[in-house]
Amino acid sequence: MNNLNNLTAKQAREGLKEKKFSSLELTKACLERIKKTDNKLNSFVTVGEEEAFENARRSDNLISGKEDKPLLGIPIAVKDNFSTKGIRTTASSKVLDNYIPPFDSTVVRKLKEAGAVIIGKTNMDAWAHGSSTETSDYGTTKNPWNTQRLPGGSSGGSAAAVAADQCVVAIGSETAGSIRQPASWCGVVGLKPTYGRVSRYGVVAMGSSLDSPGPITKTVEDSSLILKVLAGKDDLDATTSPLPAGDYTESLMANIKNLKIGVSSEYFIEGIDKEVESAIKKAIKKLEGLGARIENIKLFDPNYAIDVYTIIQRSEVSSNLARYDAIRYGFGRDRFGDEAKRRIMLGTYALSSGYYDQYYKKAQKVRTIIIDDFKKAFDKVDVIVAPTSPSLALPIGASKESTMFGELSDVLVEPSSIAGLSGINIPVGFSRSNLPIGMQIIGPQFAEEIVLQTAFTYEQETLSEAWRNLKPKL
Amino acid sequence: MKYESVIGLEVHVELKTKSKMFCGCSVDYFGKEPNTLTCPVCLGLPGALPYPNKKAIEWCIKLGLSLNCEIPLSSKFDRKNYFYPDLPKGYQISQYDEPFCRNGSVKLSSGKKIGIRRVHMEEDTGKLTHTTIDGEKATLIDFNRSGVPLVEIVTEPDFRTSEEVIEYLKKLQQLVRHLSISNADMEKGDMRLEPNISLRKAGLKVLPKYKVEVKNINSFKFVEKAIDYELKRQEEILEKGETPAQETRGFVEESSSTVSQRTKEEASDYRYFPEPDIPPFVWKKEYIDKLKVELPELPDEKTVRLSETYSLPFVSAATIVRDPNLDKIFEETARIGQGSFGIAPIDTANAIINRRVNIENKNPNEIAEQISSARVKSQISDKELTRIIEKVLATNKKALEDFQKGKEEAIMFLIGQVLKETKGKATADKVKASLLAKIK
Question: Is the pLDDT reported for residue B90 higher than 70?
């Protein structure tokens, strides 16, 4: 069979079960695709070929023995900030250039238990500091749709790998936009679960009160399949919720009749790309046509979130990066890039005696106000729909001119991140320049089911649209 | 007295829970091979997260309740950021402005109350060893101790003398042992203390403008020496019209003195902020009430009860309570002794306190029997005893002469001879007394 690597997780699972192909063939197809295309894309920091083949063979044996696991034999790429036992984990920083964790992050453990084959570690902004992958110490990842463009970030490697069919599914993590924004720029599905829905254990910490691991996939259905594997209370992460996880695949159905969808004019900010604006407005019309009720709601100007996010995230970063003090991990602090140094300095300043109340404490108060603002909105509507990014994928080098690049390009995803909400990016079409446009659907905390359902409905209704057949030319 | 001393204490107590504060590793690190009781969490590896030990928090609150503290219904952990090689995360998880327990007190025997400012929970650090390897100076890190639960008890600056400090420390040690939450062994580092010492003009009520913290004190005896040395040193400086420096000093055992370790130009900036990896705690009042009910009888209460129930002098009751195992032995033995052998509880108490009976590996019944038979032994009549003593002295003239010449050990020989003659009917104490009366 040709191009097995193009398959979705659902298709791959069915094909494997019916023995149309083996996990080894599927894994080989992905690794060959990586070999063929990664010199152009640079999606991966580390590819674990031997281990992947070994696990694929093991999966095939299990499949022969009629074993059934949700991800058995499916090749998955994991962002390089997830600890992988025995596989180098750098978070794209040369400080950790030769760090090999002795343990698996909970997400990786769960993927392995579900039978997944980990094929490699994807590139990202160093320490997840950024929205471009341009801060990676291992080079910038390119957007598969136009290699002169950025993939977004920080999970840029994961989004590019999925868009370019280098893997079936990838895992990313979002602190404020790092799943949804690259998914938008690369034209794939990116789910940011509620904070506390998926364990952070073993994920190199960035903004500890914000980090949310989640799937980047080719379809909404795959997204629900992966979330079902990952979601739930973890006895190694005290911030995971005891609320039982949903059965996200069972609850997935294409029906949003009478669903109340909120649209806020504040999210069509000044300077938004006109093509993005019209594509999202068209998508909203389509949702209305499917039976949803569109309500105009008022939300805070998303720009407020930038200040709050900057203070909280920098403060937490300054503390989280303290452990790389040159005593362990082999390398010194001189290996921190400019962005990490900027964040450490700003965060250290914000937490200093005398400034704590003025910055960190105040930011937490505004954070509470933003959370309340969303709560009020969700009293009126079930989900909120908005553009994911105000722009199309920007050219390589764009982040270098702006030290606040990430915050600005993530302005539309930051408010829901600091409120710890659930959200998803789904592709809704392309620009004339052939770059993907993404729409986000934001739900209340722990409302992944309704978010996925809304996304699934839209996706199913637009499957026959011509742009769905486009593939990146690499 | 021209000056009044102002002393406060910070005491760290390591809890003997099964597992560490934030991971499943054993806390039993004493004498273990370095870095064998570790995991990603207590090594602070990238991505590892703390998961709080419920038992340790419960014990911390119980200690707070025993120290008459208020238990706020909300509390949280904070990060205390500082760099040190024994601190693998670059921050210590501690508590800053919302400790588990606050505003308690301890009553000294004089009736004076020492205020407890706060009792909070934190994690211990690793241990550094400075050594030479292949001719090169090296520092080794052992993370076995990293993450062991540590309770910090901070008093108000209410102490005026080193005696008060020592009485408080002994009470605290006794308390944590009674609660079975720590061995509180100073030598092993289970209990560590840091006094803050300063002087003010007698009659003043404001706190002095400086304070001196003394570290490296690993026994009660040394606390006294360190405090007394400091008070004298500071008085001399004040006498010269100067103000002692605000600093941390280390106690030096050999010279019983203190030396400057580091001067605090200003308070360290630990950049405290709420630990985002651990959600804040909100207790239900019923939970705190339940912990209160679960508290064992505390040493002070127990002393009063033993004294009243068994008509013991307060000092005897206190002595029995001081030893965490003795009170149970005493109560059981007193009950059996009184019931089956007609021994008054005071006699049981004295026998146990003065170790006139062997209580090692003996059950209360056996101990009561011992006390009873000891009483029988001394039933020998004075007349009979005098007869035997005279006989022994007559047949051991050499020993008698030796003793009279000043050879003290000769008396032991004579006592042994008399005991042999009495065939175990007299006690050694009694024989010694009678013998001395006879020959002196």
Answer: yes
Both B390 and B352 in one domain: the answer is: no
* B214 and B117 within one domain: yes
Q: Report CB contact under 8 Å: B48, A352.
A: no
Report yes or no on A138 lying in a domain: yes
- Does the structure show a pLDDT above 70 at B428? no
Of A83, A203, A239, the CB nearest to B279: A239
> For B88, which of A235, A323, A351 is closest by C-beta distance?
A323
In the structure encoding, which two tokens stand for residue B292, read together?
């209160």
Contacts of B280 in chain A (CB under 8 A): none
User: Residue B274 — very low, low, confident or very high, per pLDDT cuts 50/70/90?
Assistant: very high
Angle at A379 between CA A374 and CA A381, to 5 degrees: 85
Q: Note whether B314 and B282 are same-domain residues.
A: no
Complex ipTM, two decimals?
Answer: 0.95
Among A82, A88, A91, A370, which Cα is nearest to A201's?
Answer: A82
Please tell me if residue B266 touches chain A, with a CB cutoff of 8 Å: no
Q: pLDDT tens, B95-116?
A: 999 999 999 999 999 999 999 9
* Interface contact flag, B276 A208, Cβ < 8 Å: yes
What's the CA gap between A268 and B211, in Å, rounded?
Answer: 59
Span A288-335, pLDDT tens digits? 999 999 999 999 999 999 999 999 999 999 999 999 999 999 898 999
Distance CA A16, CA B257 (A): 77
Closest chain B residue to the Cα of A90, Cα to Cα: B46
A contact set with B (CB within 8 A): 81-83, 89, 91, 96, 99, 101-103, 105, 200-205, 208-209, 235-239, 315-316, 318-319, 321-323, 325, 327-328, 348, 351-353, 356, 360
Does residue A413 have a pLDDT over 90? yes
CB contact under 8 A, B52 and A238: yes
Partner-chain contact A351 B44, CB within 8 Å: no
The catalytically annotated residue of A28, A79, A110, A228 is A79
Residue in chain B lying closest to A315 (CA): B273
Q: Total domain count for chain A?
A: 1
SS3 content of chain B, % helix, strand, coil (to 5): 40, 20, 40
Give the number of A-B residue pairs with CB atoms closer than 8 Å: 97
Active site residue A471: no
Distance of CA A381 to the CA centre of its chain: 25
B90–A contact, CB cutoff 8 A: yes
Please identify which of the residues A154, A224, A399, A417 carries the catalytic annotation: A154
Question: DSSP label at B298?
Answer: P
B46–A99 C-beta distance less than 8 A: yes
Prediction pTM value: 0.89
DSSP code for A322: G
**Domain assignment present for A58:** yes
Q: Which domain holds residue B368?
A: 297-377
Paired with B282 in beta bridges are B74
Q: Which element (helix H / strand E) includes B348?
A: helix B345-353
Q: Is A154 a catalytic residue?
A: yes
Q: Which residues contact B360 (CB under 8 A, 6 or more apart)?
A: none
Residue B343 has a pLDDT of: 81
Subunit contact A325:B276, Cβ cutoff 8 A:
no
Q: Which residues, listed in sequence order, are joined to residue B273 by a DSSP beta bridge?
A: B79
Residue A264 CB contacts under 8 Å (≥ 6 apart), including other chains: A296, A297, A298, A299, A377, A384, A386
**Residue contact A351–B273, C-beta within 8 A:** yes
pLDDT in the model for residue B363: 84
Residue A215 lies in a domain: yes
- Structural domain of A56: 6-469
Distance between A32 CA and the closest CA of chain B, angstroms: 31
Q: For residues B281 and B203, state if they share a domain.
A: yes
Catalytic residue among A43, A178, A212, A389: A178
**Residue A233 belongs to a domain:** yes
Looking at the structure, do residues B188 and B228 belong to the same domain, yes or no? yes
